[in-house]
Amino acid sequence: SKCERRFRASCDCCNKNLCLQHLNEHNALVISQLSPLTDKINMLRHQLQSFNVHEVTGIGRGKLEQWRKDCHEKIDQIFEKKCQELDCLFTEEMNQQNKKLLQIKSKIDKLIREQEATKQDIDLLTSEIHQLDEEITKLNITNVQINTYPLVIEDSFIQINKIDEYKIDLSNVAHVHRTLKIRDGSYTTLADNNQFLLVHQKPNLCLIDRD
Ligand SMILES: [Zn+2]
Ligand SMILES: [Zn+2]
């Protein structure tokens, strides 16, 4: 049944020339489609609000904390090692000189015990003591020079990427299954990037770390 009323305007939803009454009807139909859209927006907002950031980032945060712990441990280790090195610089020499002092002392004790010494003995002992005196004095005025370089930590040492659910997180492939020597032509490359190579080497599918 074709409308007999005079058409007033072209409707933008159907591009037809419509009368006023039909225009109103079309308009009402369009308006009624807004309500479900509002419902959908509210639903999505609710979904977004219930999204728990910490739940999703928890594992990543754990990795970051492990990295921090490892770095601190490395600093502590090198600190301890260098402290020991510093002590060793002197303790070894001190032990050496103490040993020499005791040797000379036992020679003197022996001469006293036997009540027999020559001028040559005295000269020799005097010369040995003089030499030790100089060494010990030198040790006392020794300074230590320590050159240190600041630890360089680049922002790029930690890279954070959001990954799609269906992609494999290669950083989780932590252990090396097997080290392969691969000859050219013995495999078919399926996918690769700078670090990994996914190859088909009959009958296996291998994920190869280029290192
Ligand atoms: Zn229309
Ligand atoms: Zn009409």
UniProtKB/TrEMBL annotation:
This is Uncharacterized protein. Residues 94-142 form a coiled coil. Keywords: Coiled coil. The lineage of its organism: Eukaryota, Metazoa, Spiralia, Gnathifera, Rotifera. It comes from the Eukaryota.
